[in-house]
């Protein structure tokens, strides 16, 4: 058998593009409207084991004006770096894969990077397609979506795309999932790989990726993916469309701001190099930091530790944090997570020993 759990992939709907341009991405997700629950209830249900996090979703609120100002500053400072690094990653993908390339971006954090990579590869006259697919910790990748892709595109050219790595939980989940797909290459491409788990990364730096500090308003207005009893055996994983945030949506604007920086570097930069030595160096440092925090604060569930600027920031937005560790009190790239923590009354603790990360959020234990 060449693919896992073959079900009715050929009968699956064609997908949609959210608030992005239709050429940029096809989301293989099922729009749905489950009941939303508040963050405190969600946290209790997750930590008590009564519900998996993917079964529930909380209402996403519009960031305030001050937070959007932080985002715009991050974009102004980071667009040139992101442009260079995306161009270098595209060059590496083009050099490593002969034939059609299929980008399967992991919803949501992988989507902005996947769109920019798709545009870059298209500009290089490569046959490229881009899909947005769900992967859920402890549940795996959406096999219906992946089978749908494989019914239309050669598996030999597939590249999975995420924004960054944190502890490597999604990397592990991808490895487990692909064990059921014979001969499908395990290629995970990320912009930043501080835990050393990606096939391709522009660097191991934990830097302020501008798209990393917003949620649906930089991700096509999609919620994170949902997998509950409303999802049938032949359905894609689900999501909500946060239409109420349309006035604050910057999904297309983000792409159109960074894309000129990518295009300017095509043919001008060397392909990205991410070696086994790079991965080992980052993995060793990351593991030590996670283990140190877990031991010091008696954390028996590593899912309560959210390392890296983007993960730490999103955890303050979506979860109930106990505290936020920062590596520096004068780091401009930490302004978003510090702003959110201050607003939420979350303790901020200076800890210069959290390398390779610059910020880590510890989720409050509720059960």
Question: Which short descriptors sum up this protein?
Answer:
single chain; disordered N terminus; 14 strands; alpha/beta
Percent helix: 25-40%
User: Which quaternary structure do these chains form?
Assistant: single chain
Largest sheet: 6 strands, parallel
Q: Widest sheet: strand order? A: 1-4-3-7-8-9
- Runs in which pLDDT lies below 50 for 5 or more consecutive residues are 1-13
Our Rg estimate from Cα atoms comes to: 19 Å
- Count of helix runs: 9
> Structural class, judged by helices and strands?
alpha/beta
Count of β-strands: 14
Principal-axes shape call = globular
Q: Mean pLDDT, nearest integer?
A: 91
> How far from one another are the termini?
43 Å
% residues in beta strands: 5-15%
**Series of secondary-structure elements, N-terminal to C-terminal:** EEHHEHEEEHEHEEEHHEHEHEE
Characterization of this structure:
Helices cover 35% and strands 14% of the residues. It contains 9 helices and 14 strands. Helix 2 crosses helix 3, helix 2 crosses helix 6 (251-265) and helix 8 (309-318) runs parallel beside helix 9 (335-344). The protein is of the alpha/beta class and 367 residues long. Strands 1-4-3-7-8-9 form a 6-stranded parallel beta sheet, with helices on both faces. Strands 11-14-12-13 form a 4-stranded mixed beta sheet, sandwiched between helices. The radius of gyration is 19 Å and the shape is globular.
